[in-house]
Amino acid sequence: MKMSVDKALRFEGVPQEFEISVPAPVSDFAEDDISFAGDVVLHGSMTGIGENVALDGVLTATLLSPCARCLEEAKYDMKVPFEELFVRQPDPDHPDAYLYEGKEVDVTELTVANIAMNLPMQFLCKEDCAGLCPMCGQNLNLGTCKCDPALERSAFSALKALLDVKDDKEV
Prior knowledge:
Order of helices and strands: EHEHEEEEEEHH
Mean pLDDT: 90
Number of domains: 2
Low-confidence stretches: none
Shape: elongated
Largest sheet: 6 strands, mixed
Distance between the termini: 64 Å
Strand content: 25-35%
Number of helices: 4
Oligomer: single chain
Number of strands: 8
Helix content: 10-25%
């Protein structure tokens, strides 16, 4: 998505307010099973600095993905501050700057990069999600299951059994 920076270049050093809705970069996050509830919104100010343009603002988006514990849909409201620089020529002093030509900057790469760098480690439907029963798969947020609580539910129960055997005889 391209955004005009003509005003920022004409009025160098004077911050110009902007707000732009960027189509959600669905294909960039499809492998991670992440979708979006609407567009991504960038708002803030742009300032011309010679031939360069600095963007300072906030990226907001609503991401959807399966909950890491119960697999129900989890919603994550993202609000990310950003400071980015657009330059006409590669600049060794600013290796992370984005290149642009003419009087427009493409904010697509900026959008994808800022979302990717600020993804949560895991999506949760709620902080206290109880998850699924490891025995029967019941969603424990919806109710308890009928599994015997005396049964070991740990993924390490097989290792514990080996330790119990070791006590009886040498392994």
